[in-house]
Specification:
This is Acireductone dioxygenase. Helices cover 21% and strands 33% of the residues.
């Protein structure tokens, strides 16, 4: 996982890195201040045990896999990517363990700036309920991820603005107040 502030002045394809030069990195500790959790789980014989440990600690009961690619999404590819990249929140955590490929999760910090999180195999990321975020593939146009859920999945994105949503209010009240520099 690599996180950095997203260069909004760059109007190129969203699948491009959109990274400032020089880069403006964000650490896992800074992500934790806004409720984003991260683990890297090595691809070895203990990988499943480690995923199961995290799932048990966080009360994730269900799981499935998703493949985001032209082949995996078929005719829905363009519309799905467009909808994933719309700024939104969910009323549940969004948990992804990257099995193969790569992509980007973008999240808003306390100052309403985008942070881009580049994920690749072995990365496990948790976005808290109520955080504004979006997702896109990178230029490889392929990612396969294990999705974990506390209950049955709720995939209803609530597009911004949703500042009166109770999950958004709870999220804002739960994060660390200092902004990331």
């Amino acid at each position: 996982m690599r996180a950095y502030f997203y260069n909004e002045q760059d109007n190129s394809d969203p699948r491009e890195p959109h990274e400032f030069i020089p880069s403006s990195p964000v650490t896992p500790e800074e992500l934790a201040q806004i409720g984003v959790l991260y683990w890297h789980i090595q691809n070895n014989e203990d990988q499943e045990n480690e995923i199961n440990r995290v799932a048990k600690e966080r009360s994730y009961k269900n799981r499935d896999t998703i493949t985001c690619s032209k082949e995996g999404l078929g005719d829905l590819y363009e519309s799905k990517l467009k909808s994933f990249f719309e700024e939104h929140l969910h009323e549940d955590e969004e948990i992804r363990f990257i099995l193969d490929g790569s992509g980007y999760f973008d999240v808003r910090d306390q100052g309403d700036r985008w942070i881009r999180i580049a994920v690749s195999p072995g990365d496990l990321i948790v976005l808290p309920a109520g955080i504004y975020h979006r997702f896109t593939l990178d230029t490889n146009d392929y990612i396969k991820a294990l999705r974990l859920f506390k209950e049955e999945p709720k995939w209803t994105p609530i597009n911004r603005p949703a500042d009166d949503n109770p999950h958004r209010i709870h999220y804002l009240n739960s994060i660390t107040l200092p902004t990331i520099s």
